[in-house]
Design brief:
Layout: H1 3-12, E1 13-21, E2 24-31, H2 35-48, E3 51-58, E4 61-68, H3 78-99, H4 115-138, E5 147-150, E6 158-162, E7 169-171, H5 172-200, E8 202-205, E9 213-215, H6 219-228, E10 236-239, H7 242-257, H8 265-274, H9 282-292, H10 298-309, E11 316-318, H11 325-341, E12 347-349
Parallel strand pairs: 7-11
Antiparallel strand pairs: 1-2, 2-4, 3-4, 5-6, 8-10, 9-12
Length: 350
């Protein structure tokens, strides 16, 4: 490590102990006030010498770890993003057509029946991922375009979409804003789609014989349904238009993403607020999900997946600078959206 970097660090903090680790260095002490400004100055200085600093707090002391700047290789394969996007449009068209009683495999013109569902679910997924993408870019992160996941002959036609962040998240503030941008964007589109779709939905007598799939209600979807369809006669139910069904799925996916655990969006939001104390949420969340598994076994599976994902914490460059009051309010809004969109029993057979 360059001696100039070590000497500079000692001008920016009261050093109690330094621990050399090959090309890296760990220093314990107290950063000089104002801490946020000092952190930014150390970041800028280290960048000139090819090092990256990480800042955290242990008790009353600050910990600064300097290491070689990782090489970020950005080789975008836009053709793959476009191919998966187009393929997912097709598979969601298939799903929407089958859900609407069509069969494009026998009569390809039936594919048009899937347009309302495909357009709606793709809009929700796209805005969700682009929310992550643009906020990541705002903070200077190397981020891929969304990779959509097409699934043929599935009642949704997709398993969603993902983006890959190839850079280290610079701060708690960035982690919170990137984490919340996706669910917030997707939620707003799902809200609009649900309102419009419920307006197109019909109240009809429920089948007297035979089994049919009944969708559970989130608190928000229930309120919207009762506002748009205030009178539902005994023995009748709301038969969802494909757009309303897509909005319902959007709410379900939003609530699953906002679980405050692991590598989920809600996990990133919770970590930005609580840091390592987020681990205290794991057991209560797991117990709740297993409890709701009595109503729908899918929650048990999701709980197990969340537990596996929880084993890895986000890597933040600056874990010292606190969140602002505004950002803490954002975290509370995310929790409120989770409560409003959570569906205890998403599916049941009648």
């Amino acid at each position: 490590m360059h001696q100039e970097t070590i000497d500079y660090l000692q001008t920016k903090m009261f050093v109690l102990e330094t621990i050399p680790l090959g090309q890296s260095l760990i220093a314990y002490g107290r950063l000089y006030e104002p801490v946020e400004k000092t952190i930014e100055e150390i970041k800028a200085f280290c960048k000139e010498y090819g090092y990256i600093p990480f800042f955290s707090q242990e008790g009353i002391y600050h910990k600064v770890m300097l290491g070689p700047m990782p090489e970020v290789v950005d080789k975008p394969r836009i053709w793959l993003n476009v191919l998966l996007f187009v393929a997912t449009i097709f598979t969601t068209l298939l799903a929407g057509s089958f859900n609407s009683g069509g069969n494009p495999l026998e009569n390809f013109s039936d594919i048009t029946l899937g347009i309302p569902f495909s357009f709606s679910i793709m809009a929700i997924l796209t805005f969700h991922e682009l929310g992550h993408y643009f906020v990541s870019k705002k903070y200077g992160l190397v981020t891929s375009l969304p990779y959509f996941i097409p699934v043929p002959f599935h009642f949704l036609g997709t398993f969603g979409a993902i983006i890959r962040m190839k850079s280290i998240v610079p701060s708690r503030r960035a982690l919170l804003r990137i984490g919340m941008a996706g669910p917030f964007s997707g939620f707003l589109i799902a809200l609009l789609v649900s309102i419009f779709g419920l307006g197109l939905s019909e109240v009809r007598p429920a089948p007297a014989t035979g089994n049919y799939l009944r969708l559970g209600d989130s608190l928000l979807f229930y309120i919207l349904a009762r506002i748009i369809h205030p009178v539902i006669p005994e023995g009748s139910d709301i038969f969802l238009h494909p757009m309303a069904f897509a909005g319902w799925i959007g709410f379900l996916v939003t609530s699953m993403n906002l679980m405050p655990i692991g590598q989920l969006d809600g996990g990133h939001i919770a970590y930005s607020v609580l840091l390592k104390n987020q681990k205290k949420l794991y057991l209560p969340v797991m117990i709740c999900l297993i409890g709701f598994g009595i109503l729908w076994q899918g929650w048990i599976i999701w709980g197990l997946l969340a537990f596996i994902l929880a084993r890895r914490e986000p890597l933040i460059q600056d874990a010292i600078t606190p969140l602002s009051r505004k950002e803490k309010i954002y975290a509370i809004i995310a929790l409120l959206i989770l409560v409003l969109t959570f569906i205890p029993q998403p599916f049941s057979i009648f």
